[in-house]
């Protein structure tokens, strides 16, 4: 049983789409000079994607977890013609999706944390660039590892509902690769392990800026949240990044 099967029952509760997140993306698509054509990587159950479709955006969501994708697909039938979902991993998207088509590509809810190899991560960044229309942007959200790296073993902000809690932990041990542990605690107190000490790619601000320049992005903006508060490597627990073509 993969992590999606374990978490799908609680997914919308533990990964809520906030008002700030909706406003952030609404403002972003409004700034586009042409029709907004969105690609969501790791779309989950499609809550944000359906919100943007309601606003008139053309939305494509991809996810390689059938349980989550099935939930997203059920929400879209038969209401919207401008949204569709595909079973697809980030590694496949450049093979099946149209180059230069999308005005906005995003990957939120810290979904990039599940990528554990640096070569794969960099390929995703490069593929996003090739899929973007000139002037488009790639937006992603991650923990700010610079903030956590000196803390050793630390719990990320807990997401919780009446029925469950999402416990996510970063572990930095001297001489070892950093790893990620994620568990769901149910209302009965049971702990279900979602991710078990999986290596992470340590994406720091300097690395992202370097990759952006190397891959041909023209500008990178960093925020500490979706309400666009200024980002500080030392004090911001979260990083929201906009890589602009």
Automatic annotation (TrEMBL):
Keywords: Methyltransferase, Transferase. SUPFAM superfamilies: S-adenosyl-L-methionine-dependent methyltransferases. GO terms for biological process: methylation. Signal peptide: none annotated. Residues 38-136 form the Methyltransferase domain. Pfam families: Methyltransf_25. This is Class I SAM-dependent methyltransferase. It comes from the Bacteria. InterPro entries: Methyltransf_25, SAM-dependent_MTases_sf. GO terms for molecular function: methyltransferase activity.
